[in-house]
TrEMBL record:
This is LacI family DNA-binding transcriptional regulator. It holds the Pfam family LacI. The keyword rRNA-binding does not apply. It comes from Amycolatopsis mongoliensis. GO terms for molecular function: DNA-binding transcription factor activity; transcription cis-regulatory region binding. The keyword Transcription regulation applies. The lineage of its organism: Bacteria, Bacillati, Actinomycetota, Actinomycetes, Pseudonocardiales. Residues 4-58 form the HTH lacI-type domain. Keywords: DNA-binding, Transcription, Transcription regulation. InterPro entries: HTH_LacI, LacI/GalR-like_sensor, Lambda_DNA-bd_dom_sf, Peripla_BP_I.
Amino acid sequence: MGRPTLNSVAEAAAVSRQTVSNVINSPEVVSPETRERVQAAIEKLGYRPNTAARQMRTTRSQIIGLCIPPSGNGVSGVVLDQFLHSLTATAERYDHRIMLFTAADDEAETRAYADLIASVGIDGFVLTSTHHDDLRTRWLLERELPFVSFGRPWGVEDTHPWVDVDGAAGTRLATDHLVRQGHRRIAFVGWPEGSGSGDDRRAGWAAGLAAAGLGAGPQVAVFDGVEGGRSAAARLLDAGGPAGDPFLPGTGAPTAFVCASDSLALGVTAELRDRGIRPGADAAVIGFDDTPTASVLGLSSVAQPIADVAAECVRQLRGILRGEAPAEPATTLFTPHLVLRTT
């Protein structure tokens, strides 16, 4: 028996050759029932698209570039790992491959773009960690090169296709929950001002306090990490009341903490425990990212739909590559959800 072909799959699934092609290249145009039947035939016959032939027809490499940022702390870095895994799995379903590379800064990353386009003929790029005055997005826009970003174009006039998670909605969910639990001194532990996602998460907390009529709450900005969370909690507790009794009635010590990351939240819980304050009983703590560490340690957290984000990045980029991009760049903002545990 020879190698299975598009025609043999079509015959096995009792559909046309074009329908099989659509299932492989444009599954959204095929009904779910027909798509399942064709995919079953593909798996049964062991059919694999002829990538080399496709490249000759389309002059595309089927390769998507993604720069891996410098490694951060081990807790928050899990989010990027989850995104990369989901992005790779989704891309492979459409016969695309993810090519990883590294760069020290924005300028180095744009040089890498130029090298990859010239040497590999890379089709497009997925960007992460967008920020204010992002040189990478300007470089790609000026050259009209295909890309989509996981992250919004913070504070710039240029617009481009992006997918993101509504951080403000996530911290608002956390703050509203704490208000319903009776907390009135709810602190925020986040990153220094100027971080797009950090400012977004701070805004949701502030909006939640304002909606509850609580006014401005205490906040501390620190660099991400468990030690950063620990030092932030110490400063907030020491400023709020007498040492040894931070929850003395009438003092300004917070009874709840909304954090911009799970790393910060873990630092906060460590400092609370060192002071004899029980997270979840004496004080509430909610992180952000819902990492596996948070699940293991019982930390309440805001969960991002990372798999959905990755799938949407691939969908948007495929649309651009196929010339189906809308007149205005596509933008998708997903809403996170709150996962409550023991803290």
